[in-house]
Amino acid sequence: MADQVNPAPAGTEQPDANFVEDGGAAKGRFAERGKPVITGINRVGLWSLYIKEVRRFLKVQTQTIWAPAITTLLFLVIFSVALGRGGREVLGVNFPTFVAPGLIAMAMMQNSFANSSFSLLSGKIQGTIIDLLMPPLSEGELMIGIVGAAVTRAIAVGFVVAAAMALYPGVSLAMAHPWAVVWFGLMGAAMLAILGLIASIWAEKFDHNAAVTNFVITPLAMLSGTFYIIDRLAPAFQAVSRANPFFYVISGFRYGFLGQSDIGDAAHVAWAAFGLLALNTVLAFVAYKLLKSGWKIKS
């Protein structure tokens, strides 16, 4: 005769099927199938990704941080000798002091792009992109981690380049508006970091990434008013310069040091600051949608 199971006395707790038991002691509860275990922001995963990206460029800091300082200092020396002879002044200061802030901002932007454009692209080429896609990170967290590390590299490069230029004779880096230095420096670094992320999503090999750098980033940086003020250009070229977002980053960053720029007065600088924020918001939305779709990443 089959054994009969006697019901448990009233008031006695029945073991929950969702508990994991080990030696009679409940250890935890399973989440329902399809229900995410991590809710909100995965802070541990986001921080881990950020640290991984920062350590990646710090391992080769001679190439990623110190080399840009030497290259930018050479730009300063060459253009100061070529264009700064005879005590030439621009915006009321000597030429080395005028050109130094633009070179700092340009170095920050270029290195921010280089850092973020390498992350996904190297994973796609080496077949290790699964290491970024498999962890429990949302598309927004993945983007924030990569962009945040790129901005960190840009800040490090900015400090090193500024320290090198401060030693150059005739250069003054006294700040008239520190808020503008911080804001336009961060906005420029974030803009190029997001553009680098978008480029790495699109690119399938390093040649594609190099093409974006050589035919888009470098020309926009060189034609952004780093070495001149646009008032001396023909009206048509002035219009082209004002359509270049790099121009507002360079001029706004310079405004923070000199207290004046070719953007215009303080009101125009403020509008440029909000304009860069709006542009970065749009670029971040585009990058997020591309990551969400998995275009050229999950296929």
Automatic annotation (TrEMBL):
Keyword Transport tagged: yes
Compartments in which it is found: Cell inner membrane; Membrane
Residues annotated as transmembrane: 65-83, 142-168, 180-203, 209-230, 269-291
Sorted UniProt keywords: Cell membrane, Membrane, Transmembrane, Transmembrane helix, Transport
Domain ABC transmembrane type-2: 59-294
Membrane topology: Multi-pass membrane protein
One Pfam family this sequence matches: ABC2_membrane
Keyword Ribosomal protein among record annotations: no
InterPro entries: ABC-2_transport_permease (IPR052522), ABC2_TM (IPR013525), ABC2_TM_bact-type (IPR047817), ABC_2_transport (IPR000412)
Family: Belongs to the ABC-2 integral membrane protein family.
PANTHER family, A to Z: INNER MEMBRANE TRANSPORT PERMEASE YADH-RELATED, TRANSPORT PERMEASE PROTEIN
UniProt protein name: Transport permease protein
Organism: Qipengyuania profundimaris
